[in-house]
Amino acid sequence: MGSIDNFMELNVSELNEHYVRLKEKYDEYKSQNLNLDMSRGKPCSEQLDLSRDMLDILKSDEDYRAKDGTDYLNYGGLDGIPEAKELFSQVLEVSTKEIIIGGNSSLNMMHDTIARAMLHGVYGGESPWGKLPVVKFLCPSPGYDRHFAICELFNIEMITVDMLSTGPDMDTIEKLVSEDDSIKGIWCVPKYSNPDGITYSDQTVDRLAQMNTKASDFRIFWDDAYTVHHLTEKADQLKNIFAACKSAGNPHRVLMYSSTSKITFPGSGIAMMAASEENLNFFRKQLSIQTIGPDKLNQLRHVRFLKDMDNLKVHMEKHAAIIKPKFSMVLNKLESELGRKNIASWNEPKGGYFISLNTLNGCARDVINMAAEVGVKLTKAGATYPYGKDPRDRNIRIAPTLPSIEELEKAIEVLCLCVQLVSIEKILSEK
Amino acid sequence: MGSIDNFMELNVSELNEHYVRLKEKYDEYKSQNLNLDMSRGKPCSEQLDLSRDMLDILKSDEDYRAKDGTDYLNYGGLDGIPEAKELFSQVLEVSTKEIIIGGNSSLNMMHDTIARAMLHGVYGGESPWGKLPVVKFLCPSPGYDRHFAICELFNIEMITVDMLSTGPDMDTIEKLVSEDDSIKGIWCVPKYSNPDGITYSDQTVDRLAQMNTKASDFRIFWDDAYTVHHLTEKADQLKNIFAACKSAGNPHRVLMYSSTSKITFPGSGIAMMAASEENLNFFRKQLSIQTIGPDKLNQLRHVRFLKDMDNLKVHMEKHAAIIKPKFSMVLNKLESELGRKNIASWNEPKGGYFISLNTLNGCARDVINMAAEVGVKLTKAGATYPYGKDPRDRNIRIAPTLPSIEELEKAIEVLCLCVQLVSIEKILSEK
């Protein structure tokens, strides 16, 4: 079979002929009883191995007293040990007074921030959000399903905003926030975004920092999850939004989050939050009721292991060396199987954990189901949109890090087959 | 100076004479610039040393895959690893299906339970508590200040209930809960209670399990913090309230909490919650939005280190061997300095972390301030009561574990001096 170009230019019999050939291949896979998972952004075991030395880096016979006498083995320290603040304030480009180091989950910190806002409001706000008739959040999409799930839990109405190559559609955002004071927040994964891999442009950052919001207690939830997770030598540069917010006279607008979940161990990492001192003091008051403090020993483990920014960079290069071939393989395969056929488009991320694939409108759900039928699990259809509903039913999030490269190759072959089969069905149905 | 008996039988000049002698001693301490802290129930460094082997018990070259293939180094596992459920379900005398193992803080779990109840209600409840005009909690007192702080944070009205030698005053409780459906919960530290060291009697447990509550969604917050923290060989036995609740047809009434904060490392322990499967499933739904999961590695560290119930018992005996002499010294000193003087009473706990001292009515705040003036820090006056207000101003919580025995001896001498001085002032003012 020769190479096939633009599907849109094939006639019905050519499409049918092609469909039969592809279907045969698909049925072959069916008999293989595959069990492949590209659904979640989980590191692979080789990546986890990079941090194994952290497991026993704290020795039983050592002293764990800080300079100020705090014994890290005992109670004390509400918002993180100074050593961790020192290192991670550099990661987020804030001062050590503008960061809180917490437990093992930045998602938990974001959830708790919103739970607190619902019950008690935010710094400088006039009312607990939960007392208002309606609270809305802007959700640049495709985006991170777990962000959207938090909104659903708290009955926060989500407004989908398109992602452009420069970040979320700022024209729409500026208009919406200037008119509606029930819009209290926006979810952003500003660097190597989940799933598009887009890094917000300087102009987007500035516009977010400067825009007029009708709600005086509007907050940007800046989930900088992939800030050091580069795939290429020339890393994307993300403008410091906190500095931009300060310059714009909106220092309390942004709440930044990150974690080491994909630096060291997912589930046993440490999470952090950065914001204005006023914002943090407002949180600390409630935090001091919620807990006596975070796991200081795990913070110390991280600092001892990651050491400093230079060493962190080297560590992240090792991650990249493991996962980059997987990303490249997926991209090459997409190009060789789907390129020029005019039935799909995708991004080429310079970092992060995902490749975002867009099919023809109305095809993503069928593709995902069809792949699942032969044992290839992809992120649930619609998951990258609020309420799990992709309005164009076209986005598929590919998470290439966990499977081995052999598994991944097979999984992508299946995916490409399914995209072609469903596309042909779609095109034929419209002829 | 001979031994002085009952202060109540001394005349004015005897009291004055005694006051002058005690004041001289007090002033001597003033010149010593003491800095002693009996304010919080923190383990001492010898106790922390008992768990040092846990620090590097997970080796860098080992495999951390569970039987079911879960890699404990990676994401996964919302509610605790099976090994931890296995061990700690025995501690709380529940089944492995009736326990969730979480992060490093049971306080955090309790806080979050109430935050969820405010926002979403509880299993089987008709309404989020936060939507009700008023929510009330029963607070057996003296009790744990951090429980009361959670109520204050959520604007939950606290009703003080007296502690008796058998636990909280059940006559009062039964009456209150049967009449008022805005009473949604009760805080209990049922074993070696904070600060009284009282273990609830079987009858108290049964009455709590069986009583008629006007609120159908009433919950007992059962903070079993000191369940294995015995000071004597003959440990107190606490009746299993969960079993009692099931027998009484109220299986969803109780939510049990505990942690290893005072077993291994405070701040780096693991926390747990036990309840009916229906209660836990209700929580899990929300938990799955809040976090991807707890720190599985720290759970594994604990299981590897504590091993099983027999070994846990041996471990706790080592704790007891370190802190029992401190408790004995305090009790002996209280007896020799204050015994028979009729100005103070105290408990003799068989476990837990505190000695609860009651002065004459109206004296505790002055005693605590007077001790602070010479550098002896005690738990804040009133802290053991809701809103920080001890209605009789008489309760002082002594936390003897952290200081060395020499420091402790000095601190208790100061405390006993202050109790006598303030008592004499009080008696004289009433003559």
UniProtKB/TrEMBL annotation, chains A, B:
Gene3D superfamilies linked: Aspartate Aminotransferase, domain 1, Type I PLP-dependent aspartate aminotransferase-like (Major domain)
CDD domains listed in its UniProt record: AAT_like
Pfam family for this entry, one: Asp_aminotransf
InterPro entries: AspAT_Ic, PyrdxlP-dep_Trfase, PyrdxlP-dep_Trfase_major, PyrdxlP-dep_Trfase_small
Listed transmembrane segments: none
Gene Ontology terms, MF aspect: L-aspartate:2-oxoglutarate aminotransferase activity
Top-rank taxon, per record: Bacteria
Descriptive protein name: Aminotransferase, class I/II
Taxonomic source organism: Aneurinibacillus aneurinilyticus ATCC 12856
